[in-house]
Write a structure and sequence with these properties.
The complex is a heterotrimer of chains A (240), B (221) and C (50). In chain A, 79% of the residues lie in helices and 0% in strands. By secondary structure, chain A is mostly helical. Chain A has one domain. By secondary structure, chain B is mainly α. Chain B has one domain. Chain B is elongated, with a radius of gyration of 18 Å. The relative contact order of chain B is 0.16. Chain C is mostly helical and 50 residues long. Chain C has a domain of 34 residues. Chain C is rod-shaped, with a radius of gyration of 20 Å. The chains are: A mainly alpha (240), B mainly alpha (221), C mainly alpha (50). Chains A and B meet through helix 5 and helix 6 of A and helix 8, helix 9 and helix 10 of B.
Chain lengths: 240, 221, 50
């Protein structure tokens, strides 16, 4: 925990992140490359055939999208409680990234579902929860852009993120309950009834790769915002 | 009269007068409910199946109509600052406003739903389940809606953002509410009402805290 | 090789999913880096002014 507060100073954050950012990028790229290569060289799943490849794209995106929201909520909480100077920035910058991963998860989920279930969209519990997650992200982004005052905007978004995070498990539970009510079958459970071990390695690598990529992009966005704030300060004090 | 009751009755009076939004919500509710059969066709069996969902969604949308002014009206004429300065804790103020919205909008919508349910040929037991689910669930709509209203109170055109923020959070309410009706139609006991009650209770208790925090940040506290 | 492209008949789905993923991730990277470089340049310009 103390480590986070050492990074509270924007300059410290810039220096610290500059050092390991290149390695993070290399690690992300390596994982993604290895994951893709492995993913495409496994034999086809006996049940899903070659569409199992899509699992290596869908599941990591979905996982990253959910993790991003959790991080957003966590950063928001720290921002509200501890007034950590960079917490607000961290939360706001994570949102568009998370939204893109969510949309990607939905699209790949749809492409996975069509050959499996014959429809571009099914009101499966997981996909439906995911759609709601996307709406939560969009609401957060909309609220952030609509409030002009920066401090108010950050705090309002923080409250919304926390309310959303508390609500999210309930939403998922209710959607799950809802699918059983309408005699649906949740087929899209993490890749089918059971994942044979040969698929676990590519899945793990892709998951790690997506996570590292997110971390990379997130840190760069925070750095960008720090720089932009310096720019704004300089311009306000007559630097132009 | 205690400050809480004074605030409660003031808000109710403001809501039910002309232009206050309560009557508008009822009219909107009736319009939407009328429009759906026009859109899906007059097959009564189909309409009976979807009745719970349609009435619930329409009720939520109608309740949202008057929510954006919940705090904004007082914010704009400065009375929110005065209310915030009063000895009444802001959380209690928020609760009073939520209660006022429910009494002025949520309950009347529930009553009207019983009448409109007849249009969908719902059997009496299902209508009973519908009304019960609305009584139990509309407090959650007012509560969570109030949080959204407090967050957006300083936005000029916040009326459009409010539904975007609030509707995903209300998914459980719609699911359990209409699920209760379906349960009766299908002859299953699905515990939907209990789940709904639990969610509503939690919302009513927690929302005033979030709403108060949102009001404070908007008042520049 | 043709097995690889054909993907058991699911070629359209597999390659669309792969394509969209690569494009989406690529755009995110490009946009993020672009915004960063823009900020850097703006700061450099301001700090170089006397």
């Amino acid at each position: 925990m103390a480590g986070i507060f050492e990074l509270a100073n924007p300059k410290r954050f810039m220096d610290f992140s500059a050092r390991f950012l290149p390695w993070l990028g290399v690690a992300a790229g390596a994982c993604l490359l290895a994951g893709l290569l492995l993913g495409f060289s496994t034999p086809p799943d006996y049940q899903q055939g070659d569409t199992v490849r899509i699992m290596f794209l869908h599941v990591p995106a979905a996982w990253t999208a959910m993790m991003a929201y959790g991080l957003m909520a966590f950063a928001s909480a720290i921002g509200l409680i501890n007034r950590h100077p960079l917490a607000d920035v961290a939360a706001r910058t994570a949102a568009p990234l998370g939204a893109v991963f969510t949309a990607l998860g939905l699209i790949t989920g749809s492409l996975w579902g069509k050959p499996m279930w014959g429809a571009w969209w099914v009101w499966d519990g997981r996909l439906t929860s995911f759609l709601l997650l996307l709406l939560l992200y969009l609401g957060y982004i909309a609220l952030g852009s609509a409030i002009e005052d920066e401090t108010r905007s950050a705090r309002a978004c923080a409250i919304l993120a926390i309310v959303g995070a508390v609500n999210l498990p309930i939403i998922e539970f209710s959607v799950d309950w809802w699918t059983t009510l309408h005699q649906g079958d949740s087929i899209l459970r993490k890749g089918g009834p059971s994942i044979s071990p040969v698929f676990l390695w590519p899945l793990f690598l892709m998951g790690l790769g997506y996570t590292l990529l997110f971390a990379n992009l997130w840190i760069i966005r925070i750095r960008t915002e720090i720089l932009n704030r310096r720019v704004r300060t300089l311009m306000l004090s007559g630097g132009v | 009269m205690t400050p809480f009751l004074a605030l409660l009755s003031r808000d109710i009076r403001l809501a039910v007068r002309a232009g206050g939004g309560a009557a508008l919500a009822l009219a909107f509710f009736a319009c939407v409910v009328t429009l759906v059969p026009l859109g899906v066709g007059a097959d009564l069996r189909l309409l009976t199946r979807i009745a719970g969902g349609v009435l619930w969604v329409a009720a939520v949308l109608a309740a949202l109509l008057s929510l954006d002014r919940l705090f904004q009206a007082d914010f704009e004429d400065g009375s929110l600052d005065l209310i915030a300065l009063s000895p009444l804790p802001l959380e209690v103020t928020a609760f009073a406003k939520i209660a006022a919205h429910w009494l002025a909008t949520g309950l009347p919508l529930t009553a009207l739903s019983a009448l409109l349910a007849v249009l969908f040929d719902l059997p009496p037991t299902a209508i009973g389940a519908l009304v019960l689910s609305l009584i139990v669930g509309t407090p959650a709509v007012s509560s969570i809606g109030a949080v959204g209203a407090a967050l957006t109170l300083s936005i000029r055109r916040g009326g459009l953002i409010l539904p975007l923020i609030v509707l995903p959070l209300l998914a459980p309410v719609v699911i359990f509410g209409s699920g209760a009706v379906l349960g009766v139609l299908d002859g299953l006991s699905s515990g939907a009402l209990y789940l709904l009650a639990a969610f509503s209770l939690a919302s009513v208790v927690l929302s005033p805290v979030a709403a108060a925090a949102s009001v404070r940040l908007n008042l520049g506290g | 090789m043709s097995d690889f492209l054909y993907e058991g008949g699911y070629a359209f789905y597999v390659w669309s999913a792969t394509g969209i993923s690569i494009v989406a991730l690529g755009l995110m990277v490009a946009y993020t880096l672009g915004a960063y470089r823009k900020a850097k340049r703006a700061l450099a310009r301001l700090e170089n002014k006397p």
